[in-house]
Amino acid sequence: MAMNTSVFMHDSDKAALQALKAIPGFTQLLKGFMSIWNERQFQLLNMSSRLRLSEKQMSKYYDMLPPICKKLGIEIPDLYIELDVSPNSYTSGDTKPFIVMTSGLLETLPDELIPTVLAHECGHIACHHVLYSTMGRMILKGVLGLSGFSALVTTPLQIAFAYWMRCSEFSADRAAVLYDGTPDKMVEVCMRLAGYDKDIVADASVAAFMEQAKDYKELVTNSTWDKTLEFLMFSQYDHPLTALRAYECNEWSDTKQFKKIQLYLNENHFVNDFSPASREIPVRESSKFYIGKDYNEVESVFKSDGFISVKAVKTAEKGLFTKSGQVISVSIGESNSFEKDSWHRSDSEIIITYYEPLSTEELATLHSGRIQAPDSAKKCIGRSYQDVVQEFSDAGFTQIVIEKQDVKKGLLTKNLAISKITIKGQLQFAKGDWFEPDSLVRIIYQNIINE
């Protein structure tokens, strides 16, 4: 069953990414990056210089990964160990993302916290951060500037990338909290990265660390100058401060949103098809988003998310540019207007209404006993009346009246050409319009006379 990661993504993550994309030059820089981007190079570097973990290689760490990926609904990425005394982990790539942990991380954290770190990195993959974060790291390290894109790497873009990357960490932290079911381990990870190495024998207090985090939050919230100073000091940082991360995790875990998502995750992946019908599921997009999409794709999305009462209903009514198979409307229960990430019962009736023209058989059944006009009034004008009479007669019309109109020869006058045609008195009708066989067809044609 698919996982809708949007429901736990931090609001600042979403807003910062939108702001980043809106900065002038972002699109050009992205195109330039993609022109030189070669994911294969990362694979060669990893395979040649780092230790790839597996069931056969340091399996106690690798075995931590599959359960995390299953719960977050992602494929298992490659996992590597890099020789580096600095405690760190990161995720890179695009179509085939991979995770790297440094040897310093394993020396700093006890083994029971490594799954939390891996869940954090898997959160980046689930939230589709990886391509932009890879690009951001290259920008902040000056690699893209060296690749001939220095003119595109402006200061506003550097600051915006760094800010978004800091905000994206909050979303990845939430993924770890959801996997653990509690913020305790993520808070401890932050505390240890802040200075509490596992080899330090002194006792450390999580409560005191959280009090420190709260004091910091109040410090920058209550003072405009401190807020400005924070920006000036950390504008190039790609990770939020450890105390702030711990504070965010702890605060979020007390919200109704966290409890609802935790229940959704547990039922989504552990109860499977035997989930109670009354459970709640978030929708991926708003109702407006699905308008114009292919109904098969929309139906598949709702079913894969776990909704059990999804019905596609066709209609022959269409808009001006509507194509066959396109969605006209989507309703959940009594409402055909819902917002992205809103929650609904899994047994809610979902009606996907899509346009499909009636088949020839359906049209005939719908208009039983009636026949169709072989051509439109507009197309009949100017044609030979004998041909039109024959077509209407072949179509089944039994009441055809022909009237001659004597006219003088002119530049545009055509002998025996129809000048007026009506069906049941209608001057305007289209090809395929339905009428009773005995509807009066009145045809007036021109007869050129010599003076």
TrEMBL record:
Tree of life domain: Bacteria
InterPro entries: HtpX_protease, Peptidase_M48
UniProt key word Metal-binding: yes
Pfam families on file: Peptidase_M48
Record's keyword terms, sorted: Cell membrane, Hydrolase, Membrane, Metal-binding, Metalloprotease, Protease, Transmembrane, Transmembrane helix, Zinc
Domain Peptidase M48: 84-248
Cofactor names: Zn(2+)
Keyword Metal-binding: yes
Name of the protein in its database record: M48 family metallopeptidase
Species this chain originates from: Faecalibacterium intestinale
